[in-house]
Amino acid sequence: MGRSLTHNSFWILTALADGRRHGYDILREVSSLSDGAAALRPTTLYAALERLEREGLVVVDSEEIVDGRARRYYRLTDEGRDALGEESAALETMARTARARLRARPIAPAHRWAAPLRARNGSGLGRRPSHA
Asked: Euclidean distance between the first and final Cα of the chain, in Å?
């Protein structure tokens, strides 16, 4: 694929990874999988699904009428499955690297970098010296 998925696209493709779903089922699954961190609105979901369909990552699998309303089911394409796998691997690599860096060198307290800044500009952090 060569490019990163958006946050929303990642969760939508993840929701579709185990099979086809209709729109509101995707909304519920995304919320559940992300522990509520990704709470999509219907308009956001359908705009993302249209874009993912244009990109060849999802397709409309079928449509049916339920209680007088059209229900459209989406599923991952092989390209979509590959894109989700690549994105998952990239996220794992980034997280592993960040954890290793954090373990290797603890974050310095704020006072270590604040003093040189105060000394350099002659006043408090981020302020320019007064010209009075």
From this structure: 58
DSSP line for 1-28 = --SPPPHHHHHHHHHHTTS-EEHHHHHH
Helix (H) or strand (E) holding 105: none
pTM comes to: 0.75
**Residue 23 Cα distances to 1, 11, 120, angstroms:** 25, 13, 56
Alpha-carbon distance of 105 to 54, in angstroms, equals 44
Contacts of 63 (CB under 8 A, 6+ apart): 70, 71, 72, 73
Strand partners, 69: 66
- What is the spatial distance between Cα 57 and Cα 50, in angstroms, rounded to a whole number? 10
CATH topology of domain 7-104: Arc Repressor Mutant, subunit A (1.10.10)
- The string of pLDDT tens digits covering residues 66-101 is 888 888 999 999 999 999 999 999 999 999 999 999
Residues 6 or more apart in contact with residue 27 via CB below 8 angstroms: 40, 42, 45
